[in-house]
Each structure stands twice: as structure tokens, then as C-alpha cells.
Amino acid sequence: MHLVGTGCPPYGFRADETRFRQINRRVNAWAASRLRVPAHPTKTLMARAFRSLKNYNYRLWAAGCLVSNVGTWMQRTAQDWLVLTELTHHNASAVGTVMALQFGPQLLLLPWTGWVADHVDQRKLMMVTQAAMGMLALALGVMTVAGVVALWHVYVFAFLFGCAAAFDAPVRQTFVAQLVGDAELPNAVALNSTSFNAARMVGPAAAGLLIAGVGTGWAFVVNGLSYVAVLCSLAWLRTDELHPHPRAHGSAGGRGMLDGMRYVWKRPDLMALLGMLFLIATFGLNFPIFIGTMAVSVFHTDARGYSLLSSTMAVGSVVGALLAASRERTQFRALVVGAGVFGVGCALAAVSPGYFWFAAALALTGVAGLTFTNTSNSLIQLSTEPAMRGRVMALRLGIALGTTPIGAPIVGWVADHAGPRWALAVAAASGFAALAVGLRHLATRSPAQPR
Predict the structure, then answer these.
(1) What totals of helices (H) and strands (E) does the chain contain, helices first?
(2) 140, 220 in Cβ contact below 8 A?
(3) Deepest in the core among 94, 312, 347, 407, taking most CB within 10 A?
(4) Which of 128, 50, 77, 135 is nearest to 321 (CA)?
């Protein structure tokens, strides 16, 4: 009953008014959705690809890494050029030895690097390793500028640099999850690769100009100074906004690494992934040898021509990284496709009739190689328990980089004795072999597993 003088409408009228307002809101929302101008597909793609940059900590970290990555690529180019043309007479085996010494510690120190990544403060450890690598680069630069460097010096510095990098790499890979959380991890991993390969476009070209202008040693000096950017970004992070994972507890050293190996052994998907990675990393990812020998022995270019080929491959890698960043999901199928296209790209590079055809094949190989390595990184991190992530990532890096001492000397020997084109044929074969492993896993995996 309506109470006179209370100012309250009848209950039925209030219900009707409420229902009318709800209907009105729905109609307005429907009309707005029909009149709204859709976002441009390119803008939507770019926003999705760079979404991790909304995070302050990741933005700061990415800026520091970009500066350091440019320096890293300058040093890699200068080191290969120093060994290939200044300390030897186009000796690809010497370049392979340097690569073996630089990446060998990834495998040699494997029992400890993964355990450290799971048990210590990752931010503080990276500050130590980054500072150590910066000082080593400066020391090699000073010796080269002074004209006292010899081949054995480069061997020693490569090994010491590799030891520092062996402890740095698993931590740097897993630290990204602390910056953005697991939800945005695939995007952040892809953006890291974009930064690394964008620097790959700039670094070799800058190194080529620096080598031609003032000498090889200054590229090492610039790289040493570039580590200051990473140290500053680590120091300025907002630690209260990090996403820390629980630290592991258990056996140290070799016994801790055995735990990681047992974990992988029980996972057919990880076994297949790491098997594919072994094939391509051992015999396929030796591009300092491929590019250096093709540039010098086949196309007879100078330092600028050599650095341009490295930058061209980086263009393809950046494209692959951006494509990976724009994907919402990471699937095993992308790994298989990447392996197959990698084999095709290396085969095309092996039969390229001229410099620019070779450069185009390198760009395609860059897209495929980046797709493969990025997908392996994201799949392993997302499918591994947080407490085991450091050890499993150390296994991945041990295979990705630590198998270089096996493959680089073999590929260098093939380049010296059969020619650079046959060395690229070995790389193509590794891609097709990895493709076969991936297809076999897709055919035999259980329907419940994601594809």
C-alpha cells in the first residue's frame, strides 16, 4: 500500500523505473558499440606486441639492456674480425676455438649455474656478473688499442667472459618473470629478443665503422662502458613491484642439477624441445663462422660488407621477435615451423649466387632462428615449476650455448677444408633433423597435451 505523505512511490512503480533504466543503459551501450570506430588493426597489433613496456620495471630494464646489447654486438663483430683478419690469415678454425672457449663454460659450469639461479638474489648476482663482463671487455680493449694483444690473449678473455656469462644467463632469462609476472612472460621474452636483435642491426654496423675508422680495440672499450647502463637499471628498479618466485631448497651443485635433469627426463615435451635445440644450436647457430667465411672467402668484402651481413640477418630476427611478441599464446607447433624454415633458409644461403642473395637468405634464417629460440625459451619457462625454473633454464642454455665447443670447431673445419657453402649445408641439415624430431613428438604426444 502507498503511504500518503511519505513521498515514496508505489513498489511497482519503482520496479518499473529500475527496469526502464536497465533497458536504457543496454540500448545506449548497444548504440555506442555500433557507432564506435574500430581500432586500426596496426595499432591493435602494436599495442599487443609492446604491452610489457607499460610496466615501469620492465621499461627501465629493457632500456639498459638495449644499450648493453649494442655494445655486445660491437664486441662480437670486432672479436671475430680481430681473429679472422688481424691475428690469423682467414682461419675459421681459430674463430671456432674462440666460440668454443666463450660458450664452453655454459656446459662446464652447468651443475652450479642453475642451482645459483634458483637459490640466490637474482638482482644482486646480475650486478656482479655484469660488472665482471664490463671490466673484461675494457681490459681486452686496452690491450688491443695498445697493440699488444695476441691470439692466446683472446682465447683467455673469451673463456673468462664465458665463465661470467654462464652464471649471468640463466638468471637474466628467469629474472624477466620477476619483472612482469608469468602472464606477460612470453611477450617480455619476445621483446627481449627484439631488443637484442635491434642492437644486432646497429652494433655490427657501428663496429664496422669504428674498426675502419680508429681500430678494432675501441669496439671492446665501447662495449665495456655499455655495461654501466644495465647496472644503473638494476640499481633503479622498484623492488617492491617485482614478482618474486619462491626460492628453491635442496641439494647444491651437481646434486641440484641432477634434480633438474630428472625433472626434464619425466617430461616428453621438454625432452623433444631440448633435443631439437641441441641439433640446431650445435650445428646451426654458428653464424660468426658462416657469415665471416662467406664474406671474406666467397664474396671478398671488407669490414663494412661483413658487418652489413650481420645487420641484415638481425633485420630478420627483429621481424621474428615482433611476430612472437604479438602472439597471445606460445605453442609447440611454432617451434616445429621455426626449425623447418631455418633449414630452408640455411640451404638457400648455401647456394646463394651473390652477396645480396646471401643477405636475403640470412634475413629469412633470422626470422626462423628467432622464432625457434624464442619459442623454446617461453615454452620451457611457462611449463616448468617456478622452483625448478633456474635449473631447467640452465640446462636449456647449456645446450643452446654450451654445445658450441662441439659444433663450432666441426663447422669451422668443414668451412676450411670443404668451403663455407658446405658448412651452411651442415646447418641446413640440423634444421631438417630438428624438424623431424618435432614432427615425431607432435605425432606421438597425448591428446591432452597442448599443441
Answers:
(1) 18, 0
(2) yes
(3) 407
(4) 50
d(CA 367, CA 320): 4
Q: What's domain 52-444's architecture? A: Up-down Bundle (1.20)
| Chain segment 389-424, per-residue pLDDT in tens | 777 877 887 787 767 778 888 998 999 899 999 999
For cell 682465447, name the residue.
Answer: 155
What percentage of the chain exceeds 90 in pLDDT?
35
Q: Residue 418: how many CB atoms within 10 A of its CB?
A: 12
Counting beta carbons within 10 angstroms of the beta carbon of residue 436, is it exposed (0 to 12), middle (13 to 18) or buried (19 or more)? middle
3-state helix, strand, coil in the chain (%, to 5): 80, 0, 20
pLDDT digits (tens, 9 = 90+) for 130-155: 999 999 999 999 999 999 999 999 99
Angle between helices 110-119 and 253-265 in degrees, nearest 10: 90
378 burial level (CB within 10 Å; 0-12, 13-18, 19+): buried
- Of 230, 228, 120, 117, which is closest to residue 173 (Cα–Cα)? 117
How far apart CA 404 and CA 411 sit, in angstroms, is 10
pLDDT higher than 90, residue 189: no
If one counts every other C-beta atom within 10 angstroms of the C-beta of residue 124, the result is 10
| Span 295-304, average pLDDT | 84
Number of Cβ within a 10 Å radius of residue 450:
12
Please choose, from the candidates 68, 166, 156, 78, the residue with its C-alpha nearest in 3D space to the C-alpha of residue 401.
166
Grid cell in block for residue 304? 663494412
Computed from CA positions of residues 258, 330, 175, 171, in that sequence, does the dihedral angle turn out positive or negative? positive
Q: Where are the domains of the chain?
A: 52-444
**pLDDT of the residue at 119:** 77
Residue 358 and residue 308 in contact, taking contact as beta carbons nearer than 8 Å: no
Report which of 157, 151, 170, 172 is spatially closest to residue 101, judged by C-alpha positions: 157
pLDDT tens by residue, 66-125: 999 999 989 998 998 899 888 888 887 888 888 888 888 877 887 788 778 777 888 899
- Grid coordinates standing for 87? 691475428
Q: State the chain's mean pLDDT as an integer.
A: 82
Q: For position 255, what pLDDT does the model report?
A: 57
- What is residue 32's predicted lDDT score, i.e. its pLDDT? 52
